[in-house]
Amino acid sequence: KSKEQWFNVNVNILMERMRHNKSDVHVLQWRHGCEIDSQGDDVRFSRGIDEYSYDGRNFLSFDDAESQWVAPVEEALPTKRKWDNVPILNQYTKGYLEKECVDWLNKFR
């Protein structure tokens, strides 16, 4: 339930920033995952993906190499600053992408 609450709060903030109301339909897409390099049984993390798009436009993404959020549009800058100022969030995101995500891929390959 906490993830649902988090999404509801952040969707409302996003719609307010974009000057949208709830009577129109808008699409928020969240994509996260990882890419690996493998040779036989040896699996290595290659790249992580944690990104948000709004109405088909890139909105915010996580740069796992730099452990920070990237805001390609002005409306995403307040969220980038807020999330970058929560070190545990960036550490969790990086850790999930580099470890837990790879573990899940190994489990199902």
From TrEMBL:
Membrane-crossing segments per the record: none
Entry-linked InterPro entries: MHC_class-I_related (IPR050208), MHC_I-like_Ag-recog (IPR011161), MHC_I-like_Ag-recog_sf (IPR037055), MHC_I/II-like_Ag-recog (IPR011162), MHC_I_a_a1/a2 (IPR001039)
Any single GO BP term: immune response
Record Pfam families: MHC_I
One CC-aspect GO term: extracellular space
Top-level taxon in the UniProt lineage: Eukaryota
Name listed for the protein in its UniProt record: H-2 class I histocompatibility antigen, L-D alpha chain
